[in-house]
Write a structure and sequence with these properties.
The structure is a homodimer of 213-residue chains.
Chain A lengths: L6 H20 L2 H8 L5 H6 L2 H16 L12 H17 L8 H10 L5 H23 L5 H20 L1 H8 L1 H5 L3 H15 L15
Helix pairs in contact in A: 1-2, 1-4, 1-6, 4-6, 5-7, 5-8, 5-11, 7-8, 8-11
Chain A binds a DNA duplex (30 and 30 nucleotides) through helix 3.
Chain lengths: 213, 213
DNA sequence: GAGTGTTTCAAACGTTCGTTTCAATCGATT
DNA sequence: AATCGATTGAAACGAACGTTTGAAACACTC
């Protein structure tokens, strides 16, 4: 039945690379089938048309990059929950490595130039995580209205996504070696410190005092 | 000679909108000529082909948006400089409605799906502004090393770019009407408050206390 | 107002794309 | 070995695209 080397799977793999590289419009079905070692008609036979193939590939990208929908945060104090979420978000979205290397680029492309498939992506993958963050934020700021909660969450997510979306620009801006020196541990700690300080739950950011000093 | 309503100018205007909306591949010359009120052959007559038209449009976008490289910050206190930069950044990059409204979206598109032109873009468009932010941040945190300064700046820029990069996702996430309610004034104030609080230069963010209360 | 270079126009060209077709082939079941 | 649904293959289809064409319309000079 589901041979791992089946044409369908090879098509998804090849399509993922092609869509991630060129986007939906510029991607060529002929290229995809060639790379998958399949016939030109294979896409239409297995998926119907180009758009449905894209939808399957996009959801597959999210499936592979999102094994856990929500992190285990238990009943930690709110500040630690927030720190845990930031670590989770970085691991899953920002620095997580994908098999084949096309899932994250594809997802990022979709977020910035959405297609019709975006609604399902938002509903299945983004909203649950955003609601988790919002609930943590509500715990920290019980008095804030919904609008304030939203922008507080956006400030957290924006800081994190920065390192995904502007990677090419950042490399040219500060030099590739300096960008590479910003490892996940350092970034998670910075974003968490920055955010907790902004919320009045920790010391000011950027003072670089060693805790042991 | 150079009638401001000349076909060539109207083509650049229409092409800017089309390229900004759909990108190079998905943009249609027929749509561009239609919007410009020009004949289908006009693009080839005035620019040669689609790619040369794109180059001209992209350079025109930079030319128009490069009038003000840096905001007037004078010798305000550092916290006010930072607030001024955030306002400037929002006006120029995030909500900046340039004539026709296509220059910034087109540039953003180029930034996240870079071509060979990215190096020049970084040098002329991004680096001067980033260095300004870094100098402000250095004034606030004289003791911080370069790496810390970088991520502090990234936290500011990330919060701002959030509202440009993920606009479509945000609309689906919180509803278009809620997204529309986040006007520039509100966002500038939020990001500035959040950032200054993170740096220990202001009250904690999200408390929503009226300053007069 | 004839002459000349520039710009616009409707129509079509050649290509490429996604998609379809239908016969050939495979694989399991009897 | 025969059967039959599932899959693959070579070829072609229709549509849409960027581009070209050649004549008409225009603007300007003398």
């Amino acid at each position: 039945m589901s041979n791992p080397d089946a044409t369908k799977d090879r098509l998804i793999e090849a399509a993922g690379r092609e869509f991630a590289e060129k986007g939906f419009e510029a991607a060529r079905i002929r290229t995809i089938c060639e790379r998958a070692g399949a016939n030109l008609a294979a896409v239409n036979y297995h998926f119907g048309d180009k758009e449905q193939l894209y939808r399957v590939v996009l959801l597959e990208a999210y499936r592979r990059r999102s094994t856990t929908v929500t992190p285990e945060l238990g009943d930690l104090p709110p500040a630690e929950k927030l720190r845990g979420f930031i670590r989770f978000f970085f691991e899953q979205v920002v620095v997580g490595e994908d098999e084949g290397g096309w899932q994250t680029p594809l997802i990022m492309r979709e977020l910035f130039h959405p297609t019709a498939a975006l609604d399902e992506v938002v509903g299945r993958w983004i909203r649950p995580r955003f609601e988790l963050l919002r609930s943590i934020m509500r715990e920290i700021r019980p008095g804030a209205d919904e609008r304030r909660l939203t922008v507080l969450c956006f400030s957290v997510v924006g800081q994190c996504l920065m390192y995904r979306m502007t990677r090419q620009v950042s490399g040219r801006l500060i030099g590739p070696e300096n960008l590479a020196s910003l490892d996940a541990e350092y970034l998670v700690d910075h974003v968490a410190t920055f955010t907790l300080a902004a919320l009045g739950l920790g010391p000011a950011a950027g003072l670089d005092e060693t805790p042991e000093g």
